[in-house]
Amino acid sequence: MNGHPLDEILELATLEDKALVTCTIRDFAILDRAWLAAGRQHSGNSLPAPGQCRFL
Fold this sequence. Notes:
This protein is mostly helical. The chain has helices spanning 6-15, 25-37, and strands spanning 20-21, 45-46. Strands 1-2 form a two-stranded parallel ribbon.
């Protein structure tokens, strides 16, 4: 889903009751705090093992 805003991807994952796998840890942390502040819940996230994220 490269090129899509992280908030849209998290929204879709939540609607489908799926966890989000992301290498953009910093961006996800900001989004996660915003969701928590708004009282929203999501299905979680998973961080790949070190060295597994490759950006082209």
